[in-house]
């Protein structure tokens, strides 16, 4: 019984310390506008570097030629090949295909050139 009480008191101490620690960091970082601004800038930099690696330099609107290329080749090419040929990111290809309600054919690998 005594050992059980010791475990409970130890658990309560640990729990209160964890709550204090969480509250401290929540106050320090979550509500800190400067920290959030630094985090957002970091994520923008990482995204820009990743896009630069695959040849994407700025946001741009979809042209009619790109949309028609996507519609005609979505079933026959992989998303990576389409992204490289259009110089767009993989996620932008998938997002646009979802907006256009394009679906991959079930056996699309058989159609690839």
What would a concise description of this structure say?
The protein has 113 residues and is mostly helical. It is built from six helices and no strands.
Description:
It is elongated and about 75 Å long. It has a domain at 62-113. The protein has helices spanning 2-30, 33-53, 64-73, 79-86, 90-99, 108-111. It is 73% helix and 0% strand. It is built from 6 helices and no strands. By secondary structure, the chain is an all-alpha fold.
Helix and strand layout, with pairings?
Blueprint: H1 2-30, H2 33-53, H3 64-73, H4 79-86, H5 90-99, H6 108-111
Helix pairs in contact: 4-5
Features:
single chain; 113 residues; mainly alpha; 6 helices; 73% helix; elongated
As a percent range, the share of helical residues equals over 70%
- What structural class is derived from the secondary structure elements? mainly alpha
The largest sheet, given as strand count, sense and whether it forms a barrel, is:
none
Number of helices: 6
Q: Could you name the ranges where pLDDT drops below 50 across 5 or more consecutive residues?
A: none
* Gross morphology: elongated
- Radius of gyration (Å): 25 Å
Number of strands: 0
The percent range for strand residues is: under 5%
Residue-averaged pLDDT: 80
From the N-terminal CA to the C-terminal CA, the straight-line distance is 74 Å
| Helix/strand order, N-terminal first | HHHHHH
């Amino acid at each position: 019984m005594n050992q059980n009480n010791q475990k409970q008191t130890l658990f309560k101490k640990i729990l209160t310390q964890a709550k204090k620690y969480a509250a401290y960091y929540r106050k320090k970082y979550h509500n800190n506008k400067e920290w959030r601004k630094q985090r957002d800038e970091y994520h923008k930099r990482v995204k820009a570097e990743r896009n630069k690696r695959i040849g994407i330099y700025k946001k741009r609107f979809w042209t009619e030629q790109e949309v028609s290329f996507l519609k005609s080749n979505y079933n026959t090419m992989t998303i990576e090949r389409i992204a490289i040929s259009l110089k767009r990111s993989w996620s932008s290809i998938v997002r646009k295909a979802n907006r256009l309600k394009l679906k991959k054919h079930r056996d699309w690998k058989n159609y690839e050139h």
